[in-house]
Amino acid sequence: MQDNTSDNLYTKVILNGLWRQNPALRLLIGMCPPLAVTTGVRPALTMGLSVIFVLSCSNLVVSLIRPFLRPHVRIIVFTITIATFVTICDLLLKAYLPAMSEVLGPYVPLIIVNCLIIFRAEACASKSPVLLSVIDALGMGGGFTVALLILASIREVLATGCWAGWQVMPKAFVPWLAMQMPVGAFVTLGLLLGLIAMVSGSKEARHG
Amino acid sequence: MDRLGTLVMGFLSVVVVNNFVFTKFLGICPYLGVSGRLDTALGMGLAVTFVTTISGIMTWSLDAYLLTPLGLQVTRYICYIIVIAAAVQLVEMYVRRFFPALYELFGIFLPLISTNCVILGLCLWLDVWETDNLLEAAVLSFGTGLGFALAICIMAGIRQQLLLADVPRSLRGAPITLITAGLLALAFMGFGGMIR
Asked: In chain A, N or C terminus with fewer CB closer than 10 Å?
């Protein structure tokens, strides 16, 4: 019985991250990388996995040290924890995926200031047990990755006719170069958010 | 004279041609959050300009005079973020002391400047651009901050007009703001051929 309820809780937390509070599509936080790295599916996937890695590690550490946190120094502790894991992630990418690291450039270190990560540290990890924090990180990171992939798929297919490098559009398709430029990112995300607001039929589009 | 030319070109380049908001997508969160009113947007823009200039100069010097000679580049990100947090704290104390009304307006966004991607982004891009002297770093930092202020003020002006427009219900709020930003980015692409 006990196990059953905790299973339910974890499923709820995961679903919460994937849809109900999807960071990029519903809460509109951590918006810079979704716009910048979604010119192709591969960079978007790399970015998504990096965010999952950093978020899980930082949630784990913050949750472990939560009895020792003091209110006035907690933000700086969170930031330093996050910066440490981002450094690790950056070095790993440079070592194993140098080409991809080149493409992402400064957007990898910019994960430090991705509001999503500090938001989860503050809202979840600093008050929840370790396992729950890690699962929350996986859910939130997963939701973020899914959002990146949707955006990247739309943009890459329309801009080059390929998906992750494979030709998917007929040869006659004229590449729509504007999708690769900043315009494409802003407008696609705007329309996607509009679609979501329409589908969920709520008046939630009041974030501005 | 040649140096001066480079500086002016670099400055124009970061303000309009390589505007951080429209070409690198940095600082989108405050861009969506604070651009509702022109006066708030202007205040936010100026605060960011100030912090960007200070932290750009500080992180560049730190990197060039301390971390690189000592071979400590691995700790670069951690040092950068601490310097930025300190600079933001300074600005916050200053604004609260001398401009209480502005402080009320900023609300949560002032402390959030430290997680504003524009600032850390600039510190990282100073490396990518291979800035090789302090003056150049200072000019580029100031220009980047000014570019952000320009972008957020234009957006605030448009959004004030947008209040009167009949936007479809599901596009209200963030979606229409993003689409407007897209059109602005398109307009700013017009500057593209000007420099380099």
From this structure: N
